[in-house]
Amino acid sequence: MMSRTRSSVASSFGDKVFDFCNYIFMIFLIVVTLYPFINMLALSLNDANDSIRGGIYLWPRVWTLRNYEYVFSETNVYFATFISAARTIIGTLVSVFCTAMLAYAVSRPEYKLRKFVSIVFIFTMYFSGGLIPEYLLIKNLDLLNTFWVYIVPGIIGVFNMIVIRSFIDGLPEGILESARIDGAGDFTVFIRIVLPLIVPALATVSLFVAVYQWNSWFDVFLYNSSRADLSTLQYELVKILASTNTSHLSPADQYADAMGGRTRTVTPTSIRATMTIVASLPIIMVYPFLQRYFVKGLVIGGVKG
Amino acid sequence: MVEKSRIRQFFKSLSNQKTLMLMSLPFLVWVIVFKYLPLWGWLIAFQRYRLGKGLFDQTWVGLENFRMLFQDHHFYRVLRNTLVMSSLNLVLGFVTAITLALLLNELRRVYFKRTVQTISYLPHFVSWVVAANIVQETLAPEGIINNLLLKLNIIERPILWLGVGEYFWGILAVAEVWKNVGWNTIIYLAAITTIDPTQYEAAQIDGASRFRRMWHITLPGIRPVIVLLLIMNLGHILESGFEPQYLLGNSMNIEYSENLDIFVLKYGIQLNNYGLATAAGIFKTVVSFIFIISANHIAKRLGQSRLY
């Protein structure tokens, strides 16, 4: 009896130490995750020449909106933001609608081709044609240097189809049956009944597709790099990254550059910080509200396959 | 006779399903064009491919491109980088995600736990371009890492982290963890919720400490998920990623940063050696395919449901 009490006291002390360390660790994690973004935000709102002195961590020293003004007026960023938004909105709407429609069709038990169609799609998760054949395909389809190269190759996401399909499978069958008895065709059932019921799955998939679209740059680089008017925000940032890639090599170079640039109102660092914020802000503002959905969707899609 | 009437039955019921066909067959065409048709392009690997000529007007060279590929030292270096980076990523990714999931599970204040989780997902959602910018800024000569090390007198001069090839694998692994550790906990946390709570109560009555409960109940409880994910990820061992290596790679760390995908891009798009690039792409796809199918097979054998 004695020893039992002692051990429970000991373990509760141990538990307290554990809890304390755990909280410290979590706070460390939060700092490591958020600090780079806060630092970028501070740099983007700080006077560019002042930033060269260093010492900007969490808060701007000399407040200015000049960096944002510059980025949106003197560079291609204004238009690139528009293209990024367009491909995100159009790409997401088209892909989610089409993927949901396909998922509905292959979820119907009476559909004779459901197995065949499912297998043809799921099989594509195991291989890819590779960069060169895909490039030549896009070229032969005359999709090079068009906006549609952002949309058409991504119409169906197989993983997303699986997520939506398992959601449809989980719907009570009675609802769809009663609609069909009332004489509604499959398309009507899909639009009027299924779509409203699977909104949580659609939210999940929309987030995945929208994030993919917003963050893409490689297709811009590969297919549309000769069309400045089809560039996206992320690709503009890639170009900035590439151009400053060499300037971090030698501190002396950078110092000289900074001295020479005294008269300039912006610097590579300030432009980069500003564009990083512009490129990540929409996502930062949206994803926390969809957390409930994507956690569920990831688990469904991950386990059922 | 029976066969024939069955076939007729099949087509009859199919004609009643015109709407379902209209809703799915256009996408079947799409998938064939965009996913299966590029496989024809694999023929390029057996040709000396020149742009502007059709696929069947090219010079055929047999296995020449593959022979060149497997004799190329460059290719083996790239293969080494690919395998090392994806293995590091795999091991570190697993250990950190499982540890974080276990620790998150021990947080008692629900609100705090939610907040940490939400914040930890953030880097997963921003692009690699943004992440690469952050890595570069953090590791810059006047960046925070060098500043901290200088202040602590660990180093005397700033280190050019991205300028030393040997550091690249480590930097990449840490960047991957930073970006994805929160996201990777989701599936483990979901698995933890399925563990029977009475086990914890019993352990608590027996006086087991938090740490012991974590080690003896939670961890074994999510073991099936860990094993399954590990097997599935081994199937993707040739996928070491493309964006971070491409964006953080430079002429000084190229010996360590260049992986298979970059090799294909370089030979194909930049040097116009389409045959060799396609051969390398085929090598990757075929080996990956075998790995993934075996992984699926092993997972099934272990009595787990398939993942992907």
Description:
The complex is a heterodimer of chains A (305) and B (308). Chain A is mainly alpha-helical and 305 residues long. Chain A contains 15 helices and no strands. Chain A folds into 2 domains: 2-73 and 246-294, no CATH class; 75-228, MetI-like (MetI-like fold, Orthogonal Bundle). In chain A, helix 4 packs antiparallel against helix 10 and helix 8 runs antiparallel to helix 9 (186-197). Chain B has helices spanning 2-15, 18-36, 64-71, 73-105, 110-125, 128-139, 144-151, 168-192, 197-205, 210-221, 223-235, 243-248, 254-257, 260-270, 274-301; strands spanning 47-48, 59-60. Chain B contains 15 helices and 2 strands. Chain B folds into 2 domains: 2-60, no CATH class; 66-301, Orthogonal Bundle (MetI-like fold), CATH 1.10.3720.10. The relative contact order of chain B is 0.12. Chain B has a two-stranded antiparallel ribbon.
Within CATH, the superfamily of the largest domain in chain B carries the name: MetI-like
Determine the structural class of chain B based on helices, strands and strand pairing.
Answer: mainly alpha
Number of domains of chain B: 2
Based on Cα principal axes, name the global outline of chain B. Answer: flat
Measured on Cα atoms, how large is the radius of gyration of chain A? 26 Å
